[in-house]
Design brief:
Blueprint (H helix, E strand, L loop, with lengths): L9 E4 L6 H16 L4 E6 L4 H15 L3 E7 L2 H7 L7 E5 L8 E8 L2 E2 L2 H13 L14 E3 L1 H15 L7 E5 L5 H11 L3 E5 L18 H10 L3 E5 L6 E4 L5 E2 L1 H14 L7 E5 L4 H9 L3 E5 L3 H11 L3 E3 L5 E3 L8 H15 L4 H5 L7 E7 L10 H14 L3 E7 L5 E8 L2 H18 L2
Parallel strand pairs: 2-3, 2-4, 3-7, 8-9, 8-10, 13-14, 13-15
Antiparallel strand pairs: 1-5, 4-5, 5-6, 10-11, 11-12, 15-16, 17-19, 18-19
Helix pairs in contact: 1-2, 1-4, 3-5, 8-11, 13-14
């Protein structure tokens, strides 16, 4: 993969790294290589101020290559992804930096409900770096710009069908992160029969994710606990993640939500292949709960792309990340915060348990500590004999009572050391000793 594309498209500072010129070039590249003249591409964005500018540039690049453009406006990333599965659009491009600060933005290309693969990204990057995707098309073949309200309506209808009547009678609070969920979330949950209190649904282009949403659910937790609500839902900027809050105001993270849904599906025999896919960062307590219920958990490297690939390879229907990016593959091809809220409530109601806190309490959480050790030679940690031996000794000491994860940071000269086990004092000591040794050996 080239340097432009990361694990979730192209991201950076808006109008600095993510410029109109880059969006124009990507639009032309997508038009000439992914979509092709005479086809249509759907464009969506979150609420960042830079979004309109970048959508305009993308649209100009696409129509210059003879591709029609359907502007969806402010939508969630899952809505844009869903639009690419309906057969009307050859591809979609989402303008969003998800949970990142408002100053950032990003460009993500989707085909048939999936992010384009590494080979396609490399091809798009080559065209962008070359400065042109071609000479463009004659005037009479320039693409047209329009909208596609049916795509948004179809997505909302899909969620409504999945939810049925499980929200009837619930009092819920939602934090829309001043992002894409602001457009669809309040109306959706009201139509589903819930009494809804809404937070942070007043986007101004600069307040997305600011002290709110899935990365800052504290205000939501306080509201739910003090207001007698049954549950709270906090979305991120483009609503592909969810962090929930139980009736006491306690956080129910991605691990707990996956566990609740997986245990309910195991109980009814509907967890495909009895398998849950999670990343190496998911807590060991989740794995224990799944194993005790007769299921199994497969771990992948960090990143939703890795999760989805493993789900497809092993034919799993449920997987995700501790961060709340959860994929219900029998319902969608991507993580979806709104869908996750619906599936969580479906599992909760089906369990017959009155309080969400009781269900969440069935997913134990092992003590866990993560330390970042300064290490200029972080990629060489496994080749350093002394450090590798220390890791092996610590793993032997923990045996089946815990685990150790060592991974280089992808953005900083640091080695991330995670130690998990039954005893807090023990894992604190192990993590501290390994962090100190890494600084001594890997600099």
């Amino acid at each position: 993969m080239g340097s432009l594309f990361g694990t979730d498209g192209i991201r950076g500072r808006a109008n600095v790294e993510i410029t109109p010129a880059l969006a124009l070039a990507l639009g032309r590249a997508v038009g000439s290589r992914v979509a092709g003249p005479g086809s249509s591409v759907a464009l969506g964005r979150d609420t960042r101020r830079s979004g309109e500018m970048l959508v305009d540039a993308l649209a100009a690049g696409l129509v210059a290559e003879g591709v029609d453009v359907a502007r969806l406006g402010v939508v969630t990333t899952p809505c844009l992804v869903h639009a690419t599965t309906l057969g009307r659009h050859a591809a979609g491009v989402m303008v969003s930096a998800s949970h990142n600060p408002a100053e950032d933005n990003g460009l993500k290309v989707v085909v048939d409900g999936r992010k384009v693969d590494d080979e396609a990204e490399a091809d798009l990057e080559r065209l962008i770096e070359a400065g042109s995707a071609g000479e463009g098309v004659p005037n009479d073949r320039i693409g047209r710009m329009g909208t596609d309200p049916e795509a948004v309506e179809g997505y909302a209808a899909h969620l409504t069908d999945v939810a049925a009547d499980v929200f009837a009678g619930l009092r819920i609070a939602i934090d829309c992160a001043n992002g894409s969920a602001s457009v669809i979330g309040p109306g959706l949950f009201t139509r589903l029969g819930a009494e809804v209190q809404v937070l942070c649904a007043d986007p101004d282009g600069t307040n997305i994710n600011v002290a709110c949403g899935s990365t800052h659910p504290e205000r939501l937790a306080e509201l739910v606990a003090g207001g007698g609500f049954d549950v709270g839902f906090a979305f991120d900027g483009d609503a592909d993640r969810l962090i929930s809050v139980d009736e006491r105001g306690a956080i129910v993270d991605g691990d707990a939500m996956m566990g609740i849904c997986a245990l309910q599906r195991l109980a009814t025999g509907s967890l495909r292949n009895n398998l849950l896919v999670a990343t190496v960062m998911s807590n060991g307590g989740l794995e224990r709960a799944i194993s005790r219920a007769g299921g199994r958990m497969l771990r992948t490297p960090v990143g939703d792309r890795n999760v989805l690939e493993a789900m497809e390879r092993h034919d799993a229907a449920l997987g995700g990340e501790q961060s709340g990016h959860i994929i219900f593959r029998d319902r969608a091809t991507t993580g979806d915060g709104l869908l996750t809220a619906i599936e969580l409530v479906r599992a909760w109601r089906a369990s017959g348990v009155r309080l969400l806190s009781e269900l969440a309490g069935r997913i134990p959480r092992l003590p866990q500590v993560v330390l970042n050790s300064a290490a200029r030679r972080r990629e060489e940690w496994s080749e350093d004999g002394a450090f590798a031996a220390a890791v092996a000794d610590a793993e032997a000491q923990l045996a089946d009572r815990g685990r150790i994860l060592v991974r280089p940071s992808g953005t900083e000269p640091k080695l991330r050391i995670m130690v998990e086990g039954d005893e807090q004092d023990e894992i604190d000591r192990i993590a501290r000793e390994l962090a100190q040794l890494a600084e001594a050996r890997l600099n």
